[in-house]
Specification:
With 455 residues, the chain is α/β, with parallel strands linked by helices. It is 31% helix and 18% strand. It has two domains: 209 residues, Rossmann fold (3-Layer(aba) Sandwich); 175 residues, no CATH class. The chain has a seven-stranded parallel β-sheet, sandwiched between helices. The chain is globular and about 60 Å long.
């Protein structure tokens, strides 16, 4: 099928036409990511043979982008994809992108005028179907990786508050091509896997069945921290909270991901989640009062941010997600404005809580703001074909988010004090294998987007 270069829109098609996981060193320095060492340097870094590198590293991995909506500068597609095309800010310096975006699919195509203009300016074809985007108009898989940004757009919200974004649908179209081509490649899925638990579990299971690396989630676990610390594996955490904005499903997922990035490093590693409960409104503060550990951690956060004692409790309403892990560890997400996103953990043997804040987020909305660390780990996964963190975390945080949304409902009946839901299906276990993965050093300068056209 010929590509229409003038329009940069490729015609529609209905045809859908042994993944190899390459062992490699998962840590790349700035020099190595820039490719200064060439083939010889990468050979020394990874231990690949020169022949293998000749086959796999002579060109940048070619990546397809599948987005729901790309019309606003604050849309996730605009945050992420521009950096994958033009480079990003990592550990105090600008890095060129280590991958090549070779195709784009826009689910809400007509509304995504900004994405169409960027693609046209950069010479990237925009396809009218997912299958064409990942086959480059052919009959079999023709890219080395897939980036799904199923966030934002004109999509309905159900009565429980689930935003019905078609992430599973986009992913399913990709899987159909993988299965028909008898080959698969790494996939990044922005935010949680799906608003529906069964679909999310299917997505994770398919990655294991077909043997391809899967990552995604929130940018918060890899955003700048104050102080710049990471908990060691086997830290004896007793209780944890995250204080942050939680007005809806998408926002509380960010908080849950940040919480899990810390809690998975507790003694023994991740053991899975036993139960989840949601409490919304004034009743939430009664729960805090009856659980002294939560109140103490909340007061410690207020002190660390120079707020008066009881600052958070003075708000008349909040919403809380209560999480009980299989090993007895307890945690909660507590909704609040004005605290950025802040983690507080009670650790055995320490007199004071460990407190880490993510402040001054996310602006300005330009080439280097907010999401730089996510593109870095996307690029690394596409190069190494290894997950930058356990995909089990993404499945677990998706499940916690889903059951939090379900807790306040029994059928069509709503209660602000949600039911405690037992979650045996969240009995997943894993241990983190990496050190600190968040962005450090000098914050990026404000720079306009490198659009390739005048706005």
């Amino acid at each position: 099928m010929s590509k229409k270069k003038t329009e940069m829109i490729v015609g529609e098609a209905d045809s859908f036409p042994i993944n190899e996981i390459i062992e490699s060193n998962p840590s790349f320095t700035r020099r190595e990511m820039l490719g200064i060492g060439g083939i010889a340097g990468l050979t020394a870094l990874t231990g690949f043979s020169t022949d293998a590198l000749g086959r796999t590293q002579q060109r940048k991995p070619r990546v397809a982008v599948l987005a729901t909506y790309w019309a606003a500068t604050r849309s996730h597609a605009d945050w992420l994809v521009n950096k994958l095309i033009d480079g990003y800010w990592w550990q105090g310096a600008h890095l060129d992108s280590g991958i090549e975006i070779v195709s784009v699919y826009l689910h809400q195509h007509d509304a995504s005028q900004l994405g169409q203009k960027v693609a046209k300016a950069k010479g990237i074809p925009v396809y009218r179907s997912v299958a064409e985007a990942v086959t480059l108009g052919g009959k079999e898989l023709a890219v080395d990786g897939v980036v799904i940004v199923g966030e934002h757009g004109d999509y309905a919200t159900d009565m429980k508050g689930h935003w019905l974004l078609p992430r599973w649908w986009l992913y399913n179209q990709v899987i159909r091509v993988f299965e028909q081509s008898k080959r698969s490649v790494p996939v990044f899925n922005d935010k949680h896997l799906s608003y529906n638990w069964d679909d999310a579990k299917w997505m994770f299971d398919k990655s294991r069945e077909l043997g391809f690396p899967l990552t995604g989630g929130s940018l918060l676990p890899v955003y700048y921290r104050k102080p710049e610390i990471e908990l060691k594996n086997d830290t004896p955490i007793k209780h944890s909270i995250v204080v942050g904005a939680t007005p809806d499903e998408g926002a509380i997922f960010h908080c849950i991901e940040l919480l899990q990035a810390f809690n998975e490093r507790r003694k023994g590693g991740e053991t899975g989640v036993k139960s989840i409960q949601s409490i919304r409104g004034p009743e939430a503060w009664k729960w805090v009062e009856s659980n002294s550990w939560a109140g103490k951690l909340l007061d410690a956060v207020a002190k660390s941010l120079d707020f008066k004692p009881g600052h958070f409790q003075s708000a008349p309403r909040t919403n809380i997600c209560i999480i009980e892990y299989n090993d007895g560890t307890q945690a909660a997400i507590i909704g609040s404005q004005g605290a950025g996103w802040t983690y507080a953990g009670e650790i055995e043997g320490q007199n004071e809580p460990t407190i880490v804040s993510l402040l001054n987020f996310p602006g300005p909305f330009d080439q280097y703001h907010a999401s730089n660390a996510q593109p870095h780990w996307i690029v690394e996964m596409m190069l190494t074909k290894k997950e930058p963190f356990n995909a089990e975390r993404l499945l677990l945080t998706t499940g916690i988010t889903n059951q939090y949304m379900e807790s306040n409902w029994e059928g069509s009946k709503y209660s602000p004090v949600g039911r405690r839901i037992e979650t045996p299906f969240l009995n997943m276990t894993y241990r983190p294998t990496r050190g600190a993965q968040f962005n450090k050093g000098q914050r990026p300068p404000a720079r306009p987007y490198i659009r390739g056209f005048s706005q």
